[in-house]
Amino acid sequence: MSDQNTETLGVVLLIAFYLSPFIFMVIMGLVGRTLEKKHFASIRAREAATASLPVITSKSADSTLRVVKAEIVMGSVVVSLDHFKRFLAKLRMIFGGRVASYETLVDRGRREATLRLKESCAGADIVLNFRMETSTIANTKGKQGAGGVEVLAYGTAITYGGPAATPPPLPAVGA
Amino acid sequence: MNTPIILTNLENVPGRSTVEHYGLVSGSTVRAKHVGRDIAASFKNLVGGELKGYTELLTESRNEAISRMQAQAIALGANAVVNIRFSTSSVAQGAAELYAYGTAVRVE
Q1: N-term to C-term CA, chain A
Q2: Which among A128, A142, A150 is the nearest to B88, CB-wise?
Q3: CA of B89 to nearest chain A CA: how many angstroms apart?
Q4: What is the distance in angstroms between the Cα of A4 and the nearest Cα belonging to chain B?
Q5: Angstrom distance (rounded) from CA B12 to CA A35
Q6: Which backbone phi and psi does A122 adopt, to 5 degrees?
Q7: Which chain A residue shows the shortest CA-CA distance from B10?
Q8: Residue from B30, B47, B54 whose CB has the most chain A CBs within 10 Å, to mutate
Q9: Rounded to an integer, what distance in angstroms lies between the CA atom of residue A52 and that of residue A46?
Q10: Which helix (DSSP H) or strand (DSSP E) does residue B43 occupy?
């Protein structure tokens, strides 16, 4: 009886030993998922808070207003996948199709970078010529594509101050 | 960022007229992360999320590239750099090049 118990325990331990990398991965995945949910909640809250500052890709400022300040503003972030999602992405790359784990990663990076840009110019009225650049930066131990992505958002923050100086009235025609 | 000259990524400085062009100015820097940061990042890589060490490193480097570009513009006698663009490329394993370029102008 006691022998059999020891044997069962041995088998269980052996299975646990061979499964441990997988279990570790799942745990990391769960932690990563919680962190990601928290991050998305914070992104949504901050997006609502900064919604009054428009960010557009157009290049021209409102000519009826006087521009007090124009300066370049930036926001950047480096984000990476968790262990489990990286595994899922690798699996997906065998069969092809939508790699959902990378989609949420890039979404997270873009929104965070945009928010940082907005938060860096709280007093401005509008951000013009907004551009976004994404690059893979962090390759861990030489493995290509296993690292994170860097997202850089930049644009020109414009602060308006009152109406533009009104041009002198045109001479009356035919008077 | 407290800059001595006007920097924008528009084609001109809104509300001011461009009176003189000085041509292209650029600044670049190649940075490698140090081992400590790399180890910290590889731990952070397990659970995913923001790699703060890298974010800081890249921001620092980009500011360095911008200040080099500014220095070039000031040396030419410009008081603004317009149409600024950034580009990032990994030149070697663990090293990134950050490049900023734009047009130096004088505005009034």
Answers
A1: 119
A2: A150
A3: 8
A4: 38
A5: 42
A6: -60, -30
A7: A59
A8: B47
A9: 11
A10: helix B35-47
Look at chain A and count its residues: 175
Q: Which residues of chain B have pLDDT under 70?
A: 1-3, 34-38, 94
Span A48-103, pLDDT tens digits? 999 999 999 999 888 888 888 899 999 999 998 888 888 888 888 888 888 888 89
Q: In what order do the strands lie in the sheet with B6-7?
A: B6-7, B80-92, B95-107, B18-32
Which token pair is A149?
């992505």
Q: Judge contact between A85 and A155, C-beta under 8 A.
A: no
SS3 sequence of A36-67: HHHHHHHHHHHHHHCCCCCECCCCCCCCCEEE
Q: Do A80 and B86 make contact, defined as CB atoms within 8 angstroms?
A: no
Query: What's the whole-model pTM score?
Result: 0.83
DSSP A172: P
For residue A29, give how far its alpha carbon lies from the nearest alpha carbon of chain B (Å): 6
Per DSSP bridges, beta strands B6-7 and B80-92 are parallel
For tokens 């124009």, what's the residue?
A: A70
Secondary structure of A106-158 in HEC code, one letter for each residue: HHHHHHHHHHHHHHHCCCCCEEEEEEEEEEECCCHHHCCCCCCEEEEEEEEEE
ipTM of the complex: 0.86
Instruction: List the 21-80 stretch of A: residues with Cβ below 8 A of B.
Output: 28, 31-32, 35-36, 39, 59-61, 66-67, 70-72, 74, 76-80
Token pair in block for residue B70:
């500014």
